Amino acid sequence: MEGANAVGVAGVPASALNRIDLSSPDIRHSVALLKQACLDSGFFYVINHGIGQDLMEEVFVQSRRFFGLPLSEKMKLLRNKNYRGYTPLFDEVLDAGNQIRGDYKEGFYLGVEVPEDDPDAQRPHFGPNLWPSEDILPRWRQTMEKFHSQALNVAKALARIIALALDLEADYFDRPEILGKPIPVLRLLHYEGLISDPSKGIYGAGAHSDFGFITLLATDDVPGLQICKNKDAKPQTWEYVQPLKGAFIVNLGDMLERWSNCIFRSTLHRVIGNGQERYSIALFLEPNHDCLVECLPTCMSEENPPKFPPILCHTYLAQRYGDTHADLDVYRREGA
């Protein structure tokens, strides 16, 4: 197993995750490593992905600059109904049964830039982005658009390896009705220097599995991400995922679990603060709005019929986002 082993933090062990090398010419080896990871934990590292280290570092510099602005400036870019813009502390509640307020994190959503007069602009997760003023944050937009575009390419390359791991043709997910007009959501995240206390319901991010297809996560060097490989275990056992410089941490979402008829599992994860500020940047890749997510042909048989009914991507995402984010009327009532 080509895992990355590390010592845990505060008595919590570190998970050993496979490393998928996108520069490797041995695609069969990459498929085998990815398949093993998807069956084991649903998490793995991606290295040599083609995004230069300079850009990886610059996007974090620019993220810190945004979150360092006064709250009044950030609230001018409060997220809209299309999930573009700033999300304040506690905007998201990922584990309502165990959290007292919500996630101790702030974020910023970006997506594909769609002009306001384009019919697609009315769809959730599409439309014009909300951008900070160039006077306040010069080069910010250019950096984010460049990183967003390149991270999407990495996600699409991974989708081809996932297809092969599910015994599909490599370009299965590239089909126009699946990833022809995908929803690639970039989210900048900032966790304040809070010490989490699960016994009191205080988390950087509550325990959850991601909603969609696949997630790519770039992190700084501060640990905090934990995974639970068996969400049904009592009590649950958590392991740290250690930061790996220049790499993406990749995990599978609930949509892929549904697509694959639970052959590949989405994995419960959370963020536990240790008193240090932490920054991360996630790219969530979802298929087209109108993509019908139904059991893949290689993932069902007479003995293993489909476990879920077909569902449209936009119906599924609307339900999941609505369940976890604050109603925007809350901020209007507060005069934000």
Briefly summarize what is shown.
It contains 8 helices and 15 strands. By secondary structure, the protein is an alpha+beta fold.
Radius of gyration: 19 Å
Number of strands: 15
| Strand portion | 15-25%
Largest beta-sheet details: 9 strands, mixed
> What topology, given as strand order, has the largest sheet?
1-2-3-11-8-13-6-5-4
Rough shape? Answer: globular
Q: Can you count the helices?
A: 8
Give the integer mean of the pLDDT values: 89
* Helical proportion, percent range: 25-40%
Spans of at least 5 consecutive residues whose pLDDT stays below 50 are none
Give the termini separation.
Answer: 51 Å
Give the SSE order as H and E letters: EEHEHHEEHHEEEEEEHEEEEHH
Structural class: alpha+beta
Describe this entry's structure for a reader:
- By secondary structure, this protein is of the alpha+beta class.
- The termini are far apart.
- Strands 1-2-3-11-8-13-6-5-4 form a nine-stranded mixed sheet. The protein has a four-stranded antiparallel sheet with strand order 7-12-9-10, with no helix packed on it.
- Helix content is 26%, strand content 20%.
